[in-house]
Amino acid sequence: MRTQQEHALVADALASEGEVGVVTPQHLCFPEGIELVCGQRLAPLEAVYETYGTLAPDKSNVILLCHALSGGAHAAGKHHPNDRKPGWWDLYIGPNKALDTNRFFVICINALASPYGTTSPLSIDPRTGKPYHLNYPPVCVTDWVELERMVLEHLGIQQVYAVVGGSTGGMRAFEWAMRYPERVRKALVIAAPARSNPMVIALNHIQRQTILMGLKHGGIEGANRGLMLARMLGHISYLSEYALWSKFGRDTVPETDFWSVTYQVESYLEYKATTFLQRFDPFCYLYITRAMDNFDLGATYGEGDLRRALARVQAEMLFVSFTSDWLFPPAGQQEAVEILQSLGKRAEHVIIDSPWGHDSFLVERVKPQLKPVIQRFLES
Fold first, then answer.
1. Which of 60, 168, 261, 380 sees the fewest Cβ atoms within 10 Å?
2. Which residue, among 173, 180, 161, 225, has the nearest Cα to 67 in the 3D structure?
3. Residue 15: is its pLDDT beyond 70?
């Protein structure tokens, strides 16, 4: 429990924070495209990104921020003053925030296969003149990192001060430290291990099958309903038993028939699925979850030996886990930390006691615990 003085210090720190204000997405086109790990070339290639703060003349203050599955390049600020919500990590980006834009130049790049502007299954296939949909080539976390490298190099940035990410964004942050060890000074990996575990693969498989079955039997409309069901299952995996009990318990909704929504938690899941459908796409969901499944740094860089792979790391690394995260439990990160430490690498693991599950890094109530951890790492 915090003392009254500690609560006052937290309040003062939060009060001193500023906002990044109105931001504008940036667009790049790479006519020659990108050579994917699968061997196919994706061209032409569009990339969308946003930046916050000012780039130093020597480009030494760059923080690459990597978004999670349903996120995008819009990480902070608003696109219009009347927007209802700011970017997905606005809590942590801005003057005097954890990613302090008084000091750092923060860039967030929309990943391949994401529906927010970068070339995805929604983009037009130049061979057919129609959206790619299932003709989009397979992508993996390495391809996401390669796109980020291309954008950074276009901006004249060869090295980043830090790369930061949570969940699938954490996978990218980890891969950056592996793939380009000489280009990364610090890597902050939040709620992401060195490889996806069987539970993640199993949950993603069920989610993809709901979309594919819907597509087979009901076309696009069926795929959309499949996406809604997939999101319900996925959303549960981001929460915890405590979060569900505290938000909903066994509360019911009034006047429903037997097979419709009966409990508040059911109503909540339907609502979240409906809003998700308004901003995401079933084909994109298929490709991104498969990329998650295939993430395995030991296989990619160590011929199956994680220790051999982690020997590549040069960056100072901080791993952050949450006690109630059952999707990517702390043990997965602890494994990587112990190997890195045994190799003489600079690696630390902070486990935050949070009851809010995998999504803790997005929850405002966790900010007073997470912010000082991030600041200490970035500003040291």
1. 380
2. 173
3. no
